[in-house]
Kinesin motor domain-containing protein
Amino acid sequence: MEIYSVDSLSGSLHQLETFLSEWTKYIENFSLVNNSSSANQLCLKEENDHLKVCQSLFSSRVLVISIEQDKLACLQRSIDFQKEQYASLLDYNSKLEQLVEQKEATCSNPSCKRVSTETVDNAFSMLLGRQKELIKLWREDIQVLRSNFAASLQKIHIYLFHQLGILVEKFQDQQAQWMKCSQENRQLRRYIQEWKGNLRVVARIRPSLFGNECNNTALRFIGDDMITCHQSLDSSAMSFTFDQIFPPHLPQDFLYEELQPIVSSIFDGFHSCIVAYGPTGSGKTFTVFGPDGKSGVVEFAIRMLFAVTDNDPSLVATISMLEIYNETVRDLLSEDPMASLEVREDTTTGDVFAKGAVGMEMASYSDALRIIQSGLDFRSTSATLLNISSSRSHLLCILKIRGGNEHIGSLYIADLAGSERVTHSHVQGERLDETKHINRSLSCLADVFSALRNQQAHIPYRNSRLTFLLRPALSKAGKAMLIVHVSPEEHELSETIQTLRFGQRARDIELRPTKSQGNSLFGQLERLSLKRQYFSIDSSSIFLRRQISLLRQQLADERRRRK
Ligand SMILES: Nc1ncnc2c1ncn2[C@@H]1O[C@H](COP(=O)(O)OP(=O)(O)OP(=O)(O)O)[C@@H](O)[C@H]1O
């Protein structure tokens, strides 16, 4: 609602008063004029019109006044309402002031203050006490839990330690049993092999030189005597069985056990040979001389010889080192290692030798190592694409045992030069000539093996210097071990397969007895004696096994009793 101000109302009343006084003056003037002549009648008419205007003006003013009065009444009502509100507010304020005063009076009273502080203090200290009690209880609980935990932990430790002990014992037991069993197995296999008179063939896989043998999915080892090979992803597996397989990373010493019988056969009057065969870079020199030139097969054989000759001063051990380079035979221990030697045959004994080759007496083990090193210094090696130090010749270390003037036996250890594909090695000139000679003499060796396997009447030993010199060991009176070497690299797979095939075929060779010998009385007697040995070993191993299980039982009983 619009509220009019008091000023605007009083302005309207003032206007009305002014109008009324003007009207009175006008009436007085009119009576004066009425008293005059007719000229005054015109004037009267005008005045009459004017009066009409004034009347209408007056009636409009009256209307305004009544509106203003209404407004005034409304305003008055509003003022009254405000006044009422104000009065009630004042009343409420005074009540509030009273209350505030009362509150202030209460708070300023010291006794009242003390009471409330004490109450709060008491409540607070009570709470604090309760909290402390709770903390103490919790601490005690934690202490108990801790000691329980430590005790449990100790119990668990003792239990686990005990269990571990049992497991270790079991493991050692199993390991010993396994070692014993595999040793017996090997021994039996060796006996069967000797009985059959075969050439022993083992395979050695060198570790990858690029550290990626795990990537080679083509080669798989099955047990300790079988290897399978996939030529391509969709081809079926070829399997090769050997007398023993030496996988990569198997230390050199594992070979020694296999070598023992063949090395010791030298004292039984045999001409034996150990031949390291394989493609270039497959690890033949590593096997024969070791990485340092003194921890290979040669070093092991010499140690074995000295173990016997040291106890028998009548026995003398000698060594010769012959190199077959481009089909010429050289003596690496002679004063002129480049001189070419002739290969001759002693028709009475059947012995084959290089005429004029030095047989150096080995005074001691260290003396032997020195001699070997002096021979190796003259060996023909050179760097090729496939091997940084490739042997370009076949090397024969010939160990002989003499008793007085009598020749007892000999062992030929051959580190053959590696076969290589010229397309792979890209050799030229002198190296190409060497490669051709190497490959040709290796193929002569394969021919000899093939003739032996087929038991041909003529064995082509004389086709190469290598096979001719090895004839005593590769004949029916000889003993031989072929170590085929292969590389695990995938890009050398075809060489690997070729080498494994060569080894596999060699396994079928029977050096003795031949069919006719097998049927002879001597052959039958020999078989019988070997059979007996075989069965006596078998029965003694059964007896030993029984003894072991009995002892184990006793040990277990004793342990139980002590507890
Ligand atoms: N069993 C092994 N463990 C570790 N490294 C090996 C093993 N066999 C071979 N090697 C390494 O492989 C490389 C080639 O070996 P090695 O020279 O013996 O081959 P090779 O067959 O004699 O070759 P070549 O026919 O060309 O003379 C060498 O670096 C050698 O140290």
Summary: Residues 260 and 301 are 8 Å apart (CA to CA). The pocket of adenosine-5'-triphosphate is lined by residues 206-207, 209, 278, 280-286, 291, 387, 389-391, 417-418, 485 (CB under 6 Å). The radius of gyration is 63 Å. Residues 1-9, 513-522 have pLDDT under 50 and may be disordered.
